[in-house]
Amino acid sequence: MNKKLLVIFVSTLFVLIAVDIVVADDSAVITIPMNNDATAEIDVTPGNWTPTAGVGANESTGTGGFFTIYNNGTLMVDVEIAGEDAAWWGLSVDGNPSHDFFGLKYRLTTIGTWNTINSLPSTFIDDFARDGVKGFDLWLFMPTSTSTSGFQATNVTFTVSAA
């Protein structure tokens, strides 16, 4: 059973993984106004990734920084990342797939290791400099087996705060 998945960054900075094709913006921008005209703002591009991994397979965007995150605000910021369960699939807490559990990992191009995305917010980038730019990749691990062939969607949330 080979299912196509689509990873999308939407304007509220969620990543959507879906079995069906979904259309989205080319980038995601979030701006948080602070006092004294300061802003915390990040932008993530591109807005689409269409992996072709089927059940029991995995696929990454590579190791060259397929996605880019920009700090467009006027402040140095800290960025956290977290994921969510899908409708009938759970998000693996350790990044390893199993029956009806999928895994997600990310890799910043400046760091050589893949890091698990789970439901608890964890550090993505600390002290992200104003006008900073970083590349990153995602790795999707499909469930080893599944009890459903229906539409699946999940969110990966980036949270921004002043550093």
Task: Outline the structure in words.
The protein contains no helices and 14 strands. It is mainly beta and 163 residues long. The protein has one domain. The N terminus is likely disordered.
Concise overview:
The chain has 163 residues and is an all-beta fold.
Q: Structurally, how many domains make up the residues?
A: 1
How many beta-strand runs? 14
Which structural class do the helices and strands define? mainly beta
- Please work out how many helical segments DSSP would assign: 0
Characterize the largest beta sheet: strand count, sense, and whether it forms a barrel: 8 strands, mixed
Give average pLDDT, whole number: 76
Measured as a percent range, the helix fraction is: under 10%
Show unreliable segments.
Answer: 1-25
Keywords:
three-stranded antiparallel beta sheet; 14 strands; 163 residues; mainly beta; 45% strand; eight-stranded mixed beta sheet; elongated; 0% helix; single chain
Reconstruct the topology from this structure.
Layout: E1 6-9, E2 15-18, E3 28-33, E4 39-45, E5 48-49, E6 58-60, E7 67-71, E8 77-83, E9 90-91, E10 101-108, E11 115-117, E12 122-128, E13 133-141, E14 156-162
Parallel strand pairs: 9-10
Antiparallel strand pairs: 1-2, 1-5, 3-4, 4-7, 6-13, 7-13, 8-12, 8-14, 10-11, 10-13
